[in-house]
Amino acid sequence: MKVDILGVKIDAVTRAEARQRAVDFLAGSRGFRVFTPNPEMLVLASRDADFKKILNTADLAIPDGIGLLLAARYGGRSLPERVTGTDLMQDLCAAAASRGWKIFLLGGENGEAAAAAAALKERHPDIKIVGHDEGGRAFTDASGRVRLQAAVLDKIKAAAPEILFVALGHGRQEKWIADNLAELSSVRVAMGIGGAFNFIAGRSLRAPRFFRQSGLEWLWRLAAEPWRWRRIWTAVVVFPYLVLKSER
Asked: Same structural domain for residues 137 and 215?
């Protein structure tokens, strides 16, 4: 079942259900798109029709934000629980380590992908991370599409991963996946994961469980990383306003 929030369809799944669906995708014969909509992304989608269209092509769109659960409840619908991109990525990495699936990490900056790869190998000695690349100088062309150097795509093709994690920033990573997944014949799951590399590498600390479960993660994040105030404003002020406006 999917829940529509601001025109974006979100899968009503638990973390366990999301993990199982992603694992099932890996037995498929094509590439599947896994996206992680959160309040900031839905605000962006409300201004960018192309991005909204791409989000709605997801084979799995997990509810990555307590705000989505509250918005669904306000509209008389239900999302069972928050499922973060970081948690689902770690679940997929654990499954890949036990089943031999190959992983490629794309994106990040300042060595984030390499640091995440090292942390995952320490956590899962049998994991097969067949490559990582920050993507070089990414740019957005006149049509709004995200472009990377051709050599990056060639590197991924040569590594032939089944799982591709893409961290190019929300909006950019989903557009890149939509434009390039068909060319990556080995990839069965391409997932946009935002800042998950930093969390996995331990460069950014996740909010304590109490804050995550009570819906106050934004407050913890504001105290810990005050320079993110614009993003927090978007998630806790602009997003609720748009939800209230749309429901009325």
From this structure: no
